Amino acid sequence: MSEKDSNKSSFKESFKNKLLEKQKETKVARKIVLTVFTIIIIVFSGLIGGGYLYIKSALEPVNPNDKKGIEVTIPIGSTVTTISNILEEKEIIKDARIFKYYIKFKNAADFQAGEYTLNKSMTFNEIIESLQQGMLMQEAAFQVTIPEGRQLDEIASLVSKKAPYSEKEIMGKLTDKEFIQDMMGKYPNLLTDDINGKDIKYALEGYLFPATYPYYKEKPTIEEIIEPMIKKMNEIVTVYLPQLEEQKMSVHEFVTMASLIEEEATEKADREKISSVFYNRIEQDMPLQTDPTVLYALGEHKDRVLYEDLEFDSPYNTYKNKGLPPGPIANAGETSFNAVLAPEETDFLYFLATKEGEVIFTKTLEEHNIEKNKHIIGQ
C-alpha cells in the first residue's frame, strides 16, 4: 500500500471513530434530555396533584365534628384579606389565601363588623353567610328546642309556643303538598318518594331533627322555621348513606326503624339491644308488637296501651301487621340511628320497660310474661 493510500485509510478510520463517538454522545445526550424531561413531568404532575389535594382540603371545614364556639372579632373597615387572616389565626379556616380567592370567585361582599361565634365545622358558604348577615353577632329573637321522640303535632305545638304562629298554621304548612314537594326537591337524598306512600299519615313525620334552633328575625316565615330542621336531618342522615347502601336499607326504612327504637327507649335503655329484638323478630317473621305504633295509629298520647287498643285496625299497628310500619312515628336522635346500623347480637325476642325506667330483655314469651306480671300487672 502506498503512503497516499495509507493516509487515506487512516483518515477514513479516524472519521469513522469520530462519527461513532459523536453518535454515542448524541445517544447519551438524548438519554439525559429524556431523563430530565421525565423528571420535570413527574415533578410537575406531583405539584399539580399535590396542589389539587391541598386546595380541596383547604376548601373543606377544619373539623366537621367540632362545633365548639370560637369568638371572632371582625374590626370595622376590615378588608377581605384582613378577615381571611383573622379566620385562619382563629383556625376557623385552613388557608387565608384560598378563602380570599373563594370569596372573589363567589363575588361575595358586604361583610359586617362585630363579634361572632363561629366554629371549625362551618363550611365556607356558612362562614360567608354569617359574616354577611351578622347573624351570629346578635342575640336570637327566639329559639325552639325539639327533643327526641316527638311527633309532628307535638313539634307544631312546641314551635307555636315560641313563634308568632298558631299550631294549626304550623301543621298546615307541615302537611302542605307544595311545601313538601319543594323540600323534596332541595333534599332528594333524604325526602324520597317513600314519604308519600298511600298509608303514610304525615309525609314529614320523623324528618325534623331534634335540636335547638335559633331564629334571628322577629317573625320568620313558617318555611324559615321548619326548613332548618329538615336541613339538619339531611346533614345527619347523609353521614349514614354509605352504610345504608351497603346494608341495602332505604333512608325511609332507616328513619322508621330509628323512630321505633327512640319511642321504646328510656334514659336507661340499651338501644342496641332494643334494635336487636326488632331485627330478631323480623328474621323470625314475627310482628314487632311495639306499643308506640298502636298509640300513633290511635292518634293518642297516653301512658298505657289497653288490650282493646291492640285490635285497632291501622297499617301502623305492629300487633296486626308484620314488618315496619308505613313510616316513622316520631323523630329520632343519633343514638337511635346508630343502634339501627349496629344492633347488639342477642337472642332476645321480648323486652319491657319498668316504671323505674329499666328495660328487661327476655328470650321467650314465658319469661316475658313472668317479668310482665312482676313489674307491670303485679303492681
TrEMBL record:
Site (Important for catalytic activity): 264
Pfam family, one: YceG
Catalytic activity: a peptidoglycan chain = a peptidoglycan chain with N-acetyl-1,6-anhydromuramyl-[peptide] at the reducing end + a peptidoglycan chain with N-acetylglucosamine at the non-reducing end
InterPro entries found in the cross-reference section: MLTG-like
Gene3D superfamilies per UniProt: Endolytic murein transglycosylase (3.30.1490.480)
Topology of this chain in the membrane: Single-pass membrane protein
Alphabetic keyword roster: Cell membrane, Cell wall biogenesis/degradation, Lyase, Membrane, Transmembrane, Transmembrane helix
Bilayer-spanning residue ranges: 32-55
Location relative to the cell: Cell membrane
EC numbers on record: 4.2.2.29
Function: Functions as a peptidoglycan terminase that cleaves nascent peptidoglycan strands endolytically to terminate their elongation.
Entries under PANTHER family matching the protein: ENDOLYTIC MUREIN TRANSGLYCOSYLASE
Family: Belongs to the transglycosylase MltG family.
NCBIfam families reported in the protein's UniProt record: endolytic transglycosylase MltG
Name assigned to this protein: Endolytic murein transglycosylase
Name of the gene encoding the protein in the UniProt record: mltG
